[in-house]
Specification:
The protein is α+β, with helices and mostly antiparallel strands and 452 residues long. The protein is 29% helix and 28% strand. The protein binds 4-amino-1,4-dioxobutan-2-aminium adenosine-5'-monophosphate (4AD) and magnesium ion (MG).
Length: 452
C-alpha cells in the first residue's frame, strides 16, 4: 500500500508496487506503510535519529534506531542531505510525544533523488531571504508551507469565482492572446513578430468579449493571461497577470455589472473563509465576510473626500491619494471594498469603448472596484452604438482602420452590454496582505525578470 502522511489530500508517491493512495492516520497504527517525500530535517542524537519527511499534505517523523538498523545503514540514512527525496517502509506506531501522534519505524528505505549541498535556499529556516533570491530559486521556494498556502488560496479564489459565474449563467471562453490591435492604449503593448505581420500580446480580452456579445453569447467570462509592458516597477504591477474578464448583454447601466461583480467577490471571500481555514491560519490572515452592497462613491465625491482631508488631486488619483481614500472609505463606510463610479471622460482617454453619461458627456459609465486603496477591477457599460463608438475613437486618436475587425461587429446587431476586467493577483495581494504582488504568481514576469 502506498500511504501519505498528513491528512486530507493525497500526494503522489511511486514506489513500484502501487495499489492505493491514502493519507496516514492514527488508525493505521500497527500497520506497515510506505511513504515518500522530501527530507525536511534530520536530527541525529547518536543512537537514535528523527527524520522529518514532507509532502504537500504535511510532515511525518521517521524514527531510526541505530541498534535495530546497524551502524552502516543508520549512518547512510541519517547522512542523506536535506531536501533529497526518500521512500520509507515501516510500521506506523502511535506515539503521543510526536506531533501528529504517530511515527514511522523504518524497515526499508530508498533514496529516490539526492539533493546537492548546500541548498540555495532553506525551506524551513527562519532566516529572511530577499524576494529576488526566492524567485531565482522558485522551485525550492514553492516547497515552503506558506508559499504553497498562497497558491492553494489562489485555487480557492478561482474556484469561488468560477462557481459564482457558472451558477449565474456565464459560460467560460478563451479568446486569442496574439492580437493585431491593443485594447488599452499603445504604451503598454508588447509587440511580437508574427510571420510577416506586426502583432501584439493581448493586454485584455476586451475587444473579443465585446464581439462575443454581438455573437449572442449573452454572458461570458474568461480567465487568462494578459500582458502589459508596464514601465512601472512597483509591488502591484506585473508584465504578465491573470485577468478575469466578464461581459454581459442587455444591461441597463453599469449598476447591473457592479451587482454581479460584488456578489461574485463576496462569494469568493466566503469560499476562502470556509475552505481555506488552514491556509489563512498558516499565513496569519483573518478574513471577514464582505457585506453587500459595497459602497459606491463617484469619482467627484472621492476628490472632495480627499480634499477635505488635505489631499489635493490633479487629474487621476496617485498612489498616495488611493491609499488615503482606502482609509477614508474604511472609516466612513466600514468597508475595505468600494466602487469608485462615474470616472471623468478625460481620465479614460484610452478607453474608447466606455459609454458616456447621456446627461453629461464629461463623465463615463465606468467604475473601479478597489480594496484598501488598490484597484482590483475596472469595468462599466460599453458604447454599443456604432456611430457613437466610431466618433469616440476618432476623438481619442485611435486609428479606426486598425480596429475594423472589431467595429464590424457593431454594425449587424449589437446589444447594450458591459463587463469588467479583474486582476486575480491583485485580489490575492490584498486578500492575503502580501507585501508584493509577485508572491501571487508562480513564476512572475516584470521589467527585469523573464527567467525562471
Ligand atoms: O484596468 P484595466 O487596464 O482594465 C481593462 O483591462 C479593461 N479591459 C477591463 C474592462 O473590462 N473594462 O485592467 C483590469 C484589471 C485592473 O483593475 C487590475 O486588477 C489588473 O487588471 N491589472 C494588472 N494587474 C497586475 N499587473 C498589471 N500590470 C495590471 N494591469 C491591470
Ligand atoms: Mg483600470
Amino acid at each position: 500500500m502506498v500511504s501519505h502522511f498528513g491528512d486530507g489530500v493525497t500526494g503522489l508517491v511511486n514506489l513500484g508496487e502501487r495499489s492505493e493512495n491514502c493519507s496516514l492516520s492514527l488508525n493505521m497504527a500497527g500497520k506497515k506503510v510506505t511513504v515518500a517525500g522530501w527530507i525536511q530535517d534530520t536530527r541525529n542524537l547518536g543512537g537514535i535519529a528523527f527524520i522529518l519527511l514532507r509532502d504537500r499534505t504535511g510532515v511525518v517523523q521517521v524514527t531510526a534506531v541505530k541498534k535495530k538498523m546497524g551502524d552502516e545503514i543508520f549512518s547512510e540514512l541519517t547522512g542523506i542531505p536535506r531536501e533529497s527525496i526518500l521512500a520509507v517502509s515501516g510500521e506506523l506506531k502511535a506515539n503521543d510525544q510526536v506531533a501528529g501522534g504517530f511515527e514511522i519505524l523504518p524497515d526499508e528505505f530508498q533514496i529516490l533523488s539526492q539533493a546537492e549541498t548546500p541548498l540555495p535556499l532553506g525551506i524551513v529556516d527562519k532566516v529572511g531571504v530577499e524576494l529576488d533570491t526566492r524567485l531565482n530559486n522558485r522551485f525550492l521556494d514553492l516547497r515552503k508551507e506558506q508559499v504553497l498556502a498562497v497558491f492553494q488560496t489562489r485555487d480557492l479564489v478561482l474556484k469561488g469565482m468560477r462557481e459564482y459565474l457558472t451558477g449565474n449563467g456565464f459560460i467560460e471562453v478563451h479568446t486569442p492572446k496574439i492580437v493585431a490591435a491593443g485594447a488599452e492604449g499603445g504604451s503598454t503593448l508588447f509587440p511580437i513578430e508574427y510571420f510577416e505581420k506586426q502583432a501584439y500580446l493581448a493586454q485584455s480580452s476586451q475587444l473579443y468579449k465585446q464581439m462575443l456579445m454581438a455573437a449572442g453569447f449573452d454572458r461570458i467570462y474568461e480567465i487568462a493571461p494578459a500582458y502589459r509592458a508596464e514601465q512601472s516597477d512597483t509591488v502591484r504591477h506585473l508584465a504578465e497577470f491573470t485577468s478575469l474578464d466578464m461581459e454581459m448583454s442587455f444591461i441597463e447601466s453599469s449598476e447591473d455589472v457592479m451587482c454581479v461583480l460584488e456578489e461574485m467577490v463576496a462569494h469568493t471571500f466566503d469560499v476562502v473563509i470556509n475552505h481555506g481555514i488552514d491556509q489563512l491560519d498558516c499565513l496569519g490572515v483573518t478574513l471577514s465576510k464582505q457585506k453587500l452592497p459595497f459602497p459606491r462613491v463617484s469619482f467627484e465625491k472621492c476628490i472632495d473626500m480627499l480634499s477635505e482631508s488635505g489631499i489635493k488631486v490633479q487629474g487621476d488619483l496617485d498612489t498616495e491619494a488611493e491609499k488615503k481614500l482606502g482609509e477614508l472609505m474604511s472609516e466612513k463606510h466600514d468597508s475595505k471594498l468600494y466602487f469608485i463610479t462615474d470616472f471623468p471622460t478625460e481620465l479614460k482617454k484610452e478607453t474608447f469603448y466606455a459609454m458616456r453619461d447621456p446627461d453629461n458627456p464629461h463623465l463615463t459609465r465606468y467604475f473601479d472596484l478597489a480594496y484598501k486603496g488598490e484597484e482590483l477591477v475596472s469595468g462599466g457599460q460599453r458604447e454599443h452604438r456604432y456611430d457613437v463608438l466610431v466618433s469616440q475613437m476618432q476623438e481619442m486618436g485611435a486609428n479606426t482602420d486598425e480596429f475594423e475587425f472589431y467595429l464590424k461587429a457593431f454594425k449587424f446587431g449589437m446589444p447594450p452590454h458591459g463587463g469588467f476586467g479583474l486582476g486575480i493577483e491583485r485580489v490575492l495581494h490584498m486578500m492575503l496582505n502580501l507585501p508584493n504582488i509577485r508572491e501571487c504568481v508562480l513564476f512572475p514576469r516584470d521589467m527585469y525578470r523573464v527567467v525562471p
